[in-house]
Amino acid sequence: MDKTDEVALMFLGVDVGGTFTDAVVVDNKRILKQVKVKTNSENVLQGILTALDRILENCELDLLERVVVSSTVVTNALIVGDTEEVFLAVMPGTGMDITNSFPVAPFIVEGYVNHHGKVTKNVELNYLAAQAQAKGKRVAAISGKFSVRNQSNEVALRQELSELDFEQFFLGSEMSGELNFVRRTNSAYFSAAIYQKYAHFIHQIVTSIRSRGINVPIHILKADGGTMPIEVALQHPVEAIFTGPAASVLGIEALSLPEGQAISLDVGGTTTDIAFWENGRPLLANKGARINGFPTTVRAYHMRSVPIGGDSLLQRQGDAYLVGPKRVDVAAALGGNKATLGDALIVLSVVSFGDIEKAKNALIKLCYDGEDHLVVAMRFVEVAVSVLEQTIKEMIQEWEVKPVYTVNDMISGTSFRPEILVGVGGGATGLVQRLALKMNLPVSVPPGAMVANAVGAALARPTLIGTLRADSQEGYYIIPEGGIREDLSCQATRSELEDILRSWLLSEAQRWHLPVAGVEVIACEEFTTIQNYYSIGKIVYLKMQLAPGIIYGVQGQEVSF
């Protein structure tokens, strides 16, 4: 698909936030239509349906190319523990302490694959013990050390456990082709834990969209800013975590690409998502995202979600001014009975919505004798700004102390010195501008900032990741994500291996009807194997992906909701 064809397409994006559900239709590099409806936390789907009905009114459905949904369903389920019990079976081999490495105590199975990918011990399952521990559980996760170099033990264990009537299995080797047993295991576990809830949500989404006469492909946004077909999403549910922050990053990229070292802040009703940028690219988290404190293989941006937003409850305890983490469903300016951070911004005339008198009266209730409500409102805003500034300092420190892996890292360093703040979301004009003043930085709030997340979802490129490990001495290569193991010539070069992996990615893209902007190498390691002082072969590890990002930039527009 060439660039001209891309620009002619119409894209629909839906972003489900904690406070609002946004939808946009993007066509010919402009936001054609946008809607914002209140999210019903008790019935998230209803908000999506309302947004769809409003956005599709008078819309030419035959021009629609794709629908992308960004949802908090996975994130919220994992945070509050609304998940399925999982039978977690692991094969860690010998000499590895896995105490407290996983969210639940695993069922240990005998079986081992060594670092060369050779099975040194076949699977030995205590079936009765497994049956007892699996009682009442509908999903299972299986993971073995070095399984990305040989999946046979994981596959064999799945076959043996299939007699226990699990509805779904997730294998660690299919979560990622990377060497990190603990991260792969946690990814398999979390995918299993949310599978039932996610599958139900996906079914509702598909049914609802199809019932409205939309028959185009439906994609789900991923944490790394790419999209995946909804059918693939069910194979990797954990990839749908942190899609809200990812959507805001992509929205900023589409509306106003930051230059140099920049910090973006998406000020929503419930949280503020903070991301780092360098030379127009959002920075990725080192190694992978953590979920409830456990490391995973999920590629995600270097971000932090702070529980401060426009709907954050304002309270006073003695001399203390408290902003959040509790939120209020309706701000005082919109008819609520408690003051929110949004109300404070309204009375300070830095944002404009609702009834300023109602906001003022709510702030007056928080004033002690003789206090000016404007001074009190400013103090609350200053508290919120201080929390955001402190979080940014912590993120900078975290980034600068990350491990150094390459010579380039040592030469260029990992310092981060922000040059500009970029704000999106409903409270961006007030909160981010105040933060910029405190940090002595310029600020940009692009047109269309109110629906940046939905814009990001609409314009996100599909992406797939593949890994390849080759051992020329043993004469084979594997692509774990595809369950592929093939013979390999001992003379194979790295370039030839890249071609093999690229061809697999392109064939997968064709299978799922995905447009391809390019294939990029994101990791490569090459080692020479030595025996009796002579080189006898090479071990090569490759990781490549369909390049993520946005399809094109757009011209935003300011709309009052």
Automatic annotation (TrEMBL):
<dbReference type="GO" id="GO:0005829">
    <property type="term" value="C:cytosol"/>
</dbReference>
<dbReference type="GO" id="GO:0017168">
    <property type="term" value="F:5-oxoprolinase (ATP-hydrolyzing) activity"/>
</dbReference>
<dbReference type="Pfam" id="PF05378">
    <property type="entry name" value="Hydant_A_N"/>
</dbReference>
<dbReference type="GO" id="GO:0006749">
    <property type="term" value="P:glutathione metabolic process"/>
</dbReference>
<feature type="domain" description="Hydantoinase A/oxoprolinase">
    <location>
        <begin position="184"/>
        <end position="462"/>
    </location>
</feature>
<protein>
    <submittedName>
        <fullName>Hydantoinase/oxoprolinase family protein</fullName>
    </submittedName>
</protein>
<dbReference type="InterPro" id="IPR043129">
    <property type="entry name" value="ATPase_NBD"/>
</dbReference>
<dbReference type="Pfam" id="PF01968">
    <property type="entry name" value="Hydantoinase_A"/>
</dbReference>
<dbReference type="InterPro" id="IPR045079">
    <property type="entry name" value="Oxoprolinase-like"/>
</dbReference>
<feature type="domain" description="Hydantoinase/oxoprolinase N-terminal">
    <location>
        <begin position="12"/>
        <end position="162"/>
    </location>
</feature>
<dbReference type="InterPro" id="IPR008040">
    <property type="entry name" value="Hydant_A_N"/>
</dbReference>
<dbReference type="InterPro" id="IPR002821">
    <property type="entry name" value="Hydantoinase_A"/>
</dbReference>
